[in-house]
Amino acid sequence: MLKNGRQTSPGSVTENAPQTFTGNRALMLDEPLIFEIAGPKTTGVDLMDVPQVETRLGGLERNREIGLPGLAEPEVVRHYTRLSRMNYAIDMGIFPLGSCTMKHNPRLNEKLARLPGFADIHPLQPAQSVQGALELIDELATWLKKLCGMPEVSMSPKAGAHGELCGMLAIRAAHEARGEARKVVLVPESAHGTNPATAAFCGYEVDAIPATPEGRVDLAALKAKLGPDVAGVMITNPNTCGLFEPELAEISEAVHQAGGYVYCDGANFNAIVGKVRPGDLGIDAMHINLHKTFSTPHGGGGPGSGPVVFSEALAPYAPLPFVRKAGDMLELVEEEQARTGSHSDSFGRMVAFHGQMGMFVRALSYMKSHGADGLRQVAEDAVLNANYILRRLEGELTAPFAASGPCMHEALFSDEWLEDTGITTLDLAKAMIDEGYHPMTMYFPLVVHGAMLIEPTETESKAGLDRFIETILALAGAAKAGDVERFKEAPFYAPLRRLDETAAARKPILTWTEPDLAEAAE
Amino acid sequence: MSVYYTEDHEWVSVEGDTGIVGITDYAQKQLGDVVFVELPDVGKVLDQGAEAAVVESVKAASEVYAPVSGEVMEANEALQDDPAIVNASPEENGWFVKLSLSDKSQLDELMDQAAYKAFVKTL
Known about the structure:
The complex is a heterodimer of chains A (about 525) and B (about 120). Chain A is α/β, with parallel strands linked by helices. Chain A has helices at about 35, 75-85, 105-115, 115-120, 130-150, 160-175, 195-200, 220-225, 250-255, 290-295, 355-395, 425-435, 460-480, 485-490, 500-505, 515-520; strands at about 150-155, 185-190, 205-210, 230-235, 260-265, 285, 310, 320-325, 330-335, 410-415, 440, 450-455. Chain A folds into two domains: about 110-365, Type I PLP-dependent aspartate aminotransferase-like (Major domain) (Aspartate Aminotransferase, domain 2), CATH 3.40.640; about 375-495, Aspartate Aminotransferase, domain 1. Helix content of chain A is about 35%, strand content about 10%. In chain A, the strands form three sheets. Chain A has a seven-stranded mixed β-sheet, with helices on both faces. A three-stranded antiparallel β-sheet of chain A has the order 10-12-11. In chain A, strands 8-9 form a two-stranded antiparallel sheet. In chain A, helix 6 packs across helix 7 (about 195-200) and helix 11 (about 355-395) crosses helix 13. The termini of chain A are far apart. By secondary structure, chain B is of the alpha+beta class. Chain B has one domain: CATH 2.40.50.100. Chain B has helices spanning about 25-30, 80, 85-90, 115-120; strands at about 1-5, 10-15, 20-25, 35-40, 45, 50-55, 60-65, 70-75, 95-100. A six-stranded antiparallel β-sheet of chain B has the order 1-2-3-9-8-5. A three-stranded antiparallel β-sheet of chain B has the order 4-6-7. In chain B, a hairpin with a 4-residue loop joins strand 1 (about 1-5) and strand 2 (about 10-15). The longest helix of chain B is centred in the last third of the chain and has 9 residues, at about 115-120. Chain B is globular, with a radius of gyration of 13 Å. The chains are: A alpha/beta (about 525), B alpha+beta (about 120). The interface of A and B includes residues 443, 450 and 506 of A.
């Protein structure tokens, strides 16, 4: 109860509450498709009548309506605002999924990204008119190189998997430059799922390295697979079991001795930034998800950014473009004629322009507002939070690697504790939705049965973590007490219940067709 | 009619030169709720160990491999509309394909029911 007498908990639904005439429930509104709201005569802008003119398109002119919905501006704003209210986002609560937009996006980043000198420029502007933007890219590149202890960085990749592709293309270019056509890339079971996909996309055969019972890369198994046909390994560190790979330096040495290169999936760099320099572990290429480690907003389709750092050995093969000092000015080197010095054997370019400018501004804002010591604390707090969750839940849930020591940024549980309850990981995730939480990552990594992977990040306070933990403990208690109904039918309170996600992915309906009015009338 | 099993948890029930292929009850339990099944076209020739179908559950997508070589005579279209049949009746109504076997000697490499049961116990 607040001091003015208002209840602090939501009102309960009484059993005999009337059905509303609209189907809406107070602020929970049912939302039709935008096409269903649209009217044929409605438009957001008044356009002048276009005079009839003779076309010279030779019969190629459009002969029917273009089929876009017609709405007034407030209708459009309301439609998308209503839809957004059904969504769960980091701005509403903890996002334990550990994916793209999982940590707070500081509003300072947004303020700086909106400065007209960054927001209102165009990639085709002359370089001398965008010196500030180029300087920002260069400064961000310097920070990334310093934090990673590596001499080169390519800023252009647009997201994590794109960065993986960038790194693997550089590795392939390096082998080709030596006249070697190596065919195999080794990928541990504890790597991100995109790693084998990237290797295959680059034309390599993928060979899996098993995990040890402690959830780490099996070094002996890896060494046994190294040979003249192995182009390199792709290792995620910290890995998807939420564990640091302490033998990575030794792995790198073995791979280098066999003539291969080490790609590191740096998506989890947020756990070690400021604590470990990947370059010191012998890594040759690593992508950094600016949207994960450095808080730029992503997820739900927003722009990502995945710069790739390179070792001395791979630096000559880094892609174009890159920012270079030319006298007092900075220039964006985009053409192949620039293949001198640092990018002498560049494998080419991956994007039309230079990368995600808006994300660069946000990432540098995050770095400079935290400072180097602040970034180190980001990693420390993220790891502390994950370990707090691991230790508070390991008694009730099953934590297969709890004995492997502290976890890094993620706490991993299996579904062993649910055995014989009739409740699955999926059911638990759905019940979390009813409790107002976004579910954690489930059924991944595959090395753990019915995996539940929780990544709290440094964003959450202890009080917030406690509320989350109490909820999980309450659900665990209900599951063990045999309250199966609560889980099997969940979510009860979401705007939509259990959706056929597979059918949506396998047989997506992407076009709207006007309902047949005659058929509808029948 | 005799039924043979693979280490990848497929079964094939053989009568004459025809083999009906599906996944075992153990496989079904491991997968969890099956939500999608992709079947091969009739007439497709499958080598032993080739991908015969894809089964997708709430947890993962997995391949169903042909336990023996043969030509697809029929695919169980009922699974397209109701993939949950695989969970409800994995070793009867939830069959995937009917093959015309091209090399029955391959059956010798497979396990019989007793051997498969013993194999599952080791997992």
